[in-house]
Predict the structure of Ribosome-binding factor A.
Amino acid sequence: MESKRQQKMASLLQQELAQVLQRDLPHVLAGGLVPSISAVHVSPDLGVARVYLSLLLGPDASARLAQIQEHTKEIRHALGKRIRNQARVVPELTFFHDDSAAYAAHMDQVLNQLDIPPAPPEDEADDASDEPERPRLFN
């Protein structure tokens, strides 16, 4: 469970990293689509941040993730410029591919392919006779 401090820092990093990737360093992805930052998890000492990127749109997610990882120092420097008044230390950044949306889409597709027969209709009269009679508490 993350502390309030970790949650606040994670929220700040998520917002500012999105701005860095969109506005400050658009050349990092060389004209590709900017990934969305799905989650940021910060260590208890606020020294390391695990950034999860959703790379659904666009070709070859692993190549784009490698491209971002090559520019980690540049991204961290730009982030430091943006949060220098809010944070004492800029955490080390590690980027990961978040494939939870792709997994959810796959599971939805699998569930839609299942052939589940509908439940047989039950008569209401049969239901009343099958249940044992409850004792009456009040007359």
User: Anything to note?
Assistant: The chain is about 45% helix and 15% strand. The radius of gyration is 25 Å.
